[in-house]
Amino acid sequence: DFTVTIPADFSTALVSISGSDPHQATLSLETNDANNYLASTIGDQAIEKIRASVAQLVGQEAASRLLSGIADIRSSLEDAVTGATQLTDGTNQASDGSARLADGAAQLSSGVTQLAQAAPQLAAGAAQVSDGTATLAGYADQASAASQQAVNELPTVRQDIIDALTAEGLTPDQIDAVLARLDPLAGAVQNANARVQSAVSSVDALAAGAAQVAAGAQQLSGGLQDAAAGGAQLDAASRTLAEGLTQIDQGAASLRDGLASGVAQIPDSDAALRDAQAQTIADPVAVETGKVASAGDYGAGLAPFFAALAGWIGIYALFLIVKPISRRAVTALHSPVRVTLAGWLTPGLLGGLQMLALFGILAAALGFTFSHPLATLGVMVFASLTYAAIILALNVWLGSVGQFLGLVLMVLQLVTAGGTFPWQTLPEPLTWLHHILPMGYVVDGMRQLMYGGDIARVGTDLGILSLWLLGGLALAAIGVSRMTHGRTLRDLQPSLIG
User: Fold this and answer.
1) Which DSSP state fits 268?
2) Which of 134, 280, 375, 453 could form a disulfide with 448 if both were Cys (CB 3.0 to 4.6 A apart)?
3) How do residues 403-460 score in pLDDT, each as one tens digit?
4) Interacting residues of 234 by C-beta distance below 8 A, sequence separation 6+
5) Continuous H helices in 368-483
6) Domain shared by 229 and 364, yes or no
7) CB burial class (10 A; 0-12, 13-18, 19+) of residue 389?
């Protein structure tokens, strides 16, 4: 009377969480209360069991994958920690190197600055040297010209000497003798002229070199000024680099420490531990069932209610057969109490026998177990006696209407006794009836004795039933007493029943 349908896209919906369109998987339940309402209730419970089981399996699988991903993240973070450690070591070394570079750049800047400061003096000295060598070159050129002129005039001078000696009347031999002494001097002059010319060439070359040195010194002075400025910039840049590398080193250390802290916060787990964690995540709450008293099965659970109901039905049926009050006894002025007890004991004892037979069926035929069998039987018999007193009072006061009210009370107690559903679920207008009508106390007393529950509550139940018993008998006795005022001789005719 109910059907559970699993759609074709059920498995696809279960794994849709990993896609762009996550949606719930759907189980379809169709019921028909017109066929069987209880089957519909069972269907609701069945599909909830199926849903819970599937949800647990899916949740366990999802949690397992999640934990596996976390384990992979931990492994990756450990690799990242190793890399961050290496980065920290490298940046530390780079920071040390940049510090040494900054020191070297500072020294270079200082040296270049000193050179730049001395370069103008060097340029000025080179200019003075160039000027001196230029002056020297001028004098050398003059000496060279004079020496060359002297060499050029040697033949003329030799001829002038020959002419002068001839004029003096010297003989050719004497002139040759004089020339023989003078010619070596001409050779010496020529040699000296050659040396002078060579020296003049050297002086000219020196002057040219000095001029180049002076020009280079000027260029060097300007270059050293630029180098000094560049050295200062290099010094500043190297210091900035050193500070930056120090910050990078600190950042790398912070990154390493942060990654290490993150790794420490992610538990290190193996496959077995992850499986256990996944099971716990998928089903985090376990239910430990403890029973103060156990009925055993469904039949035993409903037995107290149906036994209490059977007792009422049995008494009700007996009052349909047995005449509750003998009008002959009333007319004969018998004691109202005696008449009442006689009218009560007959159906009460018969009802007790019914309860004894019912107890035998429950214990022998159905195999139900009783924690306190004799006490349970006693409550059943006492309930039958109480029911007899109630229906007797209704019959004495209201006659056939009272008999009908007994049926109404039975139907009402089907709802209020709490035999099938907890009485706490009753609508508010019916809750107070549970605490007044007797059948609920019969059900409770039988449950406590049959299942081994709270025996102290049985005393309360019997106390309430005793009030109903005594109240019913008292009302019946009062009703019988009133009946004696309206007796006639016709009431003395014998009755078929009594």
Assistant:
1) P
2) 453
3) 999 999 999 999 999 888 788 888 888 899 999 999 999 999 999 999 988 999 999 9
4) 105, 108, 109
5) 373-398, 400-416, 428-434, 439-451, 455-483
6) no
7) buried
Is there a contact between 148 and 190 (Cβ–Cβ < 8 Å)? no
277, 63 contact by CB (below 8 A):
yes
Longest dimension (CA), the chain: 236
Residue 350's domain comprises: 298-492
**249 with 118, same domain?**
yes
Residue 419 near residue 443 (C-beta atoms within 8 A): yes
Give just the sign of the alpha carbon dihedral 207, 208, 212, 213.
negative
Q: Are residues 257 and 309 in the same domain?
A: no
The gap from C-alpha 6 to its chain's centroid, in whole angstroms, comes to 32
Report the b/e string of 181-193 with b at 16+ CB within 10 A.
eeeeebeebeeeb
User: Backbone phi, then psi, for 3, in 5-degree steps?
Assistant: -130, 140
Q: 230 and 359: one domain?
A: no
pTM (whole model) above 0.85: no
3-state secondary structure of 30: strand
CA 144 from centre of chain: 105
Return the closest-CA partner of residue 31 out of 55, 3, 57, 64. Answer: 3
Question: What are 232-248's pLDDT values in tens digits?
Answer: 777 677 778 777 777 88
Question: Which residue type, as a one-letter code, is found at position 55?
Answer: A
Phi-psi sector, 227: left (phi>0), alpha (psi -120 to 50), beta = alpha
Q: Is 13 part of a structural domain of the chain?
A: no
**Total residue count of the chain as it appears in this document:** 498
Structural domain includes residue 104: yes
58: exposed, middle or buried (Cβ count in 10 Å: 0-12, 13-18, 19+): middle
